[in-house]
Amino acid sequence: MLNFDTILLFVTASILLALVPGPDNIFVLTQSMSKGAKPGIFVTLGLCTGLIFHTTAVALGVAAIFQTSQLAFDILKYIGASYLLYLAYLSFKSSSTHHLKANHKELTYVQLYKRGIFMNITNPKVSIFFLAFLPQFTNTSNGSVTIQIFILGFIFILCALVVFISISLLAAKIGSWFNKTKNGEAILNKMAGSVFGLLALKLAFTHK
Prior knowledge:
By secondary structure, this protein is mostly helical. It has one domain. It is built from nine helices and no strands. The protein has helices at residues 4-19, 23-35, 37-59, 63-68, 70-97, 109-121, 124-133, 145-179, 184-204. Helix 2 packs antiparallel against helix 9 and helix 3 (37-59) crosses helix 7.
């Protein structure tokens, strides 16, 4: 079993890594600013659910496929980039039609949750990151490495959950103030669309 010192070091590292600007926390930030705290939290739950996929991939050795196979890596990243471009399109579309209530359909919490999952699992860099990060905190003398990987993955998910929810709550307050300004909603949607577009380009041109 993992000892206390290892867990403490891992938790510290996980929190710091979750705070570093990346596709997931930027995704939470933009969604919370434009839609509010609750939608941001459901996106967060989806993203963290996606981390279960990556943890399992590492524990079972599947992540090694993304590291060694350029084709598998490219297929997954282009799916993710295409989805981000689709989100960018929806955001820009909303910014131009936000005043037409009949054309403005809010996503349900389930849809936001699913969006978070898909956003996370289609980024092969997460699996490769977990493949490099999680094993550093395992030790064969502490028992099954597979079980240790799952435990570490669960702890990382909890850390990410706390950090992302905090980001969501703070961003929602900023977004609430912004929405009170003239054309605030349209501006936020354009900002979100721009961020999604940039994230799509970043992912599309990412190398292993």
